[in-house]
Amino acid sequence: MSALPEPFDDPADDEQHRPFPDPDHSIAPRKPRTVGGAAFLMVLFGTAVGLALVVIGPWRQGLAVMGGVLLVGAFARLVIPSHDAGMLGVRRKLVDVASLSVVGAALIVLAVVIPPPPPT
């Protein structure tokens, strides 16, 4: 006989003690809970559209779309209060707005400044 306890409990006991999940408090919400969450989804969707444009072919328009969406996200982060920012607010407001603005402006500048290839 062993004096050591069993490492695992009976799985049938867990089913009796584990409560059912509450559908009102699900860990995977179906819609954003804050205005910033909706703005974040808009930035995410717009960036995906811009990336798709870059992959398909018109990369200048794709970069411009991504840059414009990031600038809109920076403006949204600027005007939305921090407690409603959701995933749009990662750090302090100044850092979020500055980083989104710099990257968005850089993408737009790249789309405009890079010269087209010479015609062949």
Describe this structure in a few short sentences.
With 120 residues, the chain is mainly alpha-helical. It has helices at 11-17, 35-56, 59-79, 93-113.
User: What is the mean predicted local confidence, pLDDT?
Assistant: 82
Q: Globular, elongated, flat, extended or rod-shaped: what is the shape? A: elongated
Amount of beta strand: under 5%
Uncertain segments are: none
Number of helices: 4
- CA-CA gap between termini: 86 Å
Order of helices and strands: HHHH
| Biggest sheet features | none
How many β-strands, per DSSP? 0
What's the helical proportion of residues?
55-70%
Computed Rg: 24 Å
Q: What structural category characterises the helix and strand content?
A: mainly alpha
Can you tell me about this structure?
The chain has 120 residues and is mostly helical. It has helices at residues 11-17, 35-56, 59-79, 93-113. The protein has a domain at 56-120. The protein contains four helices and no strands. Helix 2 runs antiparallel to helix 3 (59-79) and helix 3 (59-79) runs antiparallel to helix 4 (93-113). The model has no long low-confidence stretch (mean pLDDT 82).
Write the layout of secondary structure elements.
Layout: H1 11-17, H2 35-56, H3 59-79, H4 93-113
Helix pairs in contact: 2-3, 3-4
What attributes does this structure have?
single chain; 120 residues; mainly alpha; 4 helices; 59% helix
